[in-house]
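Minutes, project check-in

Agenda point 3 was the complex the collaborators sent over. CS summarized: two entities, 543 residues total, and the question is how they sit relative to each other. Sequences were read into the notes so everyone works from the same version.
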Amino acid sequence: MHAPPALPMPQLPTTHEAAEALMDAAAPFVGLTIPAACREGVIASLQAAAGMAALVLAEPTDPTDEPAPVFRP
Amino acid sequence: MTPAELLRAGAAATAAAVRARHVTALAMTEAAMDAIRRDNERLNVFTDVTVPRALAAASAVDGRLHAGLDPGPLAGVPYAVKNLFDVTGLATRAGSKINRANKPAGTDAVLVQRLDQAGAVLLGALNMGEYAYDFTGENFHDGACRNPHDSTRMTGGSSSGSGAAVAAGMVPLALGSDTNGSIRVPAALCGVFGLKPTYGRLPRTGTFPFVHALDHVGPLARCTADLALAYDAMSGFDAADAVCADRVAEPTLPVLGRGATGLSIAVAGGYFREGAAPSVLAALDRAAAALGASTTLDLPLAPLARAAAFLITASEGGALHLERLRARPMEFDPATRDRFLAGALLPAAWVNAAQKARRRFHDAMAAVFRRTDVILAPTVPVPAPPIGAEWLDLNGERVKLRPSLGLYTQPFSAIGLPVVAVPLGTDDATGLPVGIQVIAAPWREDLCLRVGASLEAAGLAACPPLKAHP
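CS then shared the predicted structure for the full assembly.
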């Protein structure tokens, strides 16, 4: 039984600008400097990942659902 | 048969001939070296050829036979490994430039040790996509591995050399790894058989990792009997791989001939028919008809599982390489670098949601397998694309090629199911191989192999012969 979400999942920003902002904000927190030649490729990859994230975040879950790290195939 | 013919006949045929002393292990090794010398420059398959080691190993097999000792079930079978497997004396490059400056491996990967103990003869290490983050077979540092059926075409990746070496008849057996489809995609595009076992079945000890949560290792070969022979020889617990299951041996070769009679076999529909080329769907339908599989399953959570695998792969891969991305980003293959950099930046909530989504698909598939033994699905949507292509046309929709080659493989590896990739004829327009996946419940590699063997017995599944090349 999956509890209904308290709030609907807001649409994820997948624009170039949003992905660029995520890149510039997050990179220093993992000690990365994004080379200039890589910026557009990283932004495009983050946009693609945001599209995938929208799918998994939209999936209803229950607080008791175990994630897969205890997965037994 | 001559040694060259035996290389194409396969591992079981080779081992039988060596054990019966119709041919020596040394002659088989020399035949493999001849094939490598003949085709490697054109196809770019081997990155290292371990000649002294191979000659010594072959002589040892012949010596055991001469002394009346059992040389093992893979006696004299030449094989090679994706270059992320440790091979004593070689730096484990994992397709990268960065790793090749590492200290050479001091010991062999566990699966290499097990194949050697079974009498197989290692010929060397094989080209692959950088750090296994690849479905194409292209590699910036070592050059693209080329498809033996048409050297202008992709092999598929990331176990590119493993698929090409077997298809070209250089060796009848190769090892690869599969995180999202990296055994199955090159098997399909090169027209060979591949086994991705259940997650945790074969130990990954002594291989360079990519995504711990999803990494599998397994064989590629020229028939299901060869897959079974190699898989049985490699099976067994190894405590050094934290996820390797401590299960009793479940040999598959003795049950291979039981066929598919009595099995409940279904065909994946919905997502798995969207975008596939007509020749791929025709192959799937031929297999279904031969096996009497009339039930279609929609598997509506498959896109969710693929999305989960995409995010977990990016995140774990980025984290794995974080130090190298900080220090030497411009030494990565441009085709992987930006994706690894982006992966290191993903919000944790995305990845946690991906893990829960993966669990959802796992639970849904467990329910399916309560009433179904085996599922058939296409492996790759299209036959091998031209090397350098960046876009695919899937049913009129233009999509990025690199991620799309794994559309149908990613959902099943996301939850660790065993799969055999089966070559099933060729595309009429291009003459290139097409193939399907045979999927079963966890730990039921035997069922995948039995169904693959049934398709061989029906005359549908086989490695397509190579066309003569100029």
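Noted in discussion: The longest strand of chain B covers residues 419-426.
Follow-up: revisit at the next meeting once the mutant set is ready.
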